[in-house]
Amino acid sequence: YLSSEIRARGVGRRQMLFTDMVDESDHLQVKALFADVLLDTQVMNGHTTSADLLYAGVPVVTLPGDRMTNRVASSLASASGTGAATTVRSFKEYEDLLVEMQQAQFQMRARGEVRQGSSGDSSSSSSRGSGGVVGGASSPWDAVRQRLHRSSRVPKVSPPTVPPLFNVEEWAEDFESRLASVWELHSTGSQTMHIS
After folding, report:
1. Whole-angstrom Cα distance, residue 106 to residue 117?
2. Which residues in the chain belong to E strands, given as ranges?
C-alpha cells in the first residue's frame, strides 16, 4: 500500500529506498549513506529517529508545534547545533526551505559540481559528508552535515566542539551536579525549587 501511495503522489521508485532489517551496529551507517534529509512530521515529531539521523550526520527539517511531542525534533536539532538552519516557523517556510535546497542541488548537478545520483549512491562517495561533491564544491546541506559530522562521527573531540546533544560526558556531569543540588535541598529541609 505504501509504495502505491507514494507513486500516486508523484514520487519515483528511485527516490525511495526500503531496506530489510539491518544489524543494530550498521543501522546508522545505512541511514547516513542513503538519506539526504529527514522531513520531520509536525503532529508527532521523530524522537529516537531524529536523534539517530542527526547522529548519523543527516539534517532534520522540522516545524515545532505547541506540545512537547511536536517540539522534540527542534530541540534535538538545536542541541546538535543545526537548529537555526533546519527549524522553520511555518509550513510555507518548510516547503520553501526544501524547494530552495533541492533547486540548489539540481543547479549544482547541471554544472557538474555534484555527481548524478550522489544521494544514496554509495559508490559515488566514500562518506556521507562529501555529499557526492566533485572538485571540492559543496552541496546545499554540507554546512549542516559538516557540523553534524564534526560533532558525532569523531570519537574523541574536545568538549567545546561537541554539541550538547552528543556530549555524553558533559551531560552526565551536569546531571550529577543537579542530583547533588536536589540532595542538598532535601537534606537541609529547604523548600522545593526549580534547579537549572
Report:
1. 11
2. 38-39, 60-61
pLDDT beyond 80 at 147: no
Q: Is the pLDDT of residue 134 over 70?
A: no
Cα angle, residue 156 at apex, residues 46 and 54 outer, rounded to 5°: 15
Environment class of 88 (CB within 10 Å of its CB; exposed 0-12, middle 13-18, buried 19+) = buried
* Tens-place pLDDT, residues 71-113: 999 999 998 888 888 999 999 999 999 888 788 777 877 877 6
Cα(38)–Cα(45) distance, integer angstroms: 11
Residue with cell 559515488: 124
b/e 30-63 (16+ beta carbons within 10 angstroms → b) = ebbbebbbbebeeeebbeeebbbbbbbbbbbbbb
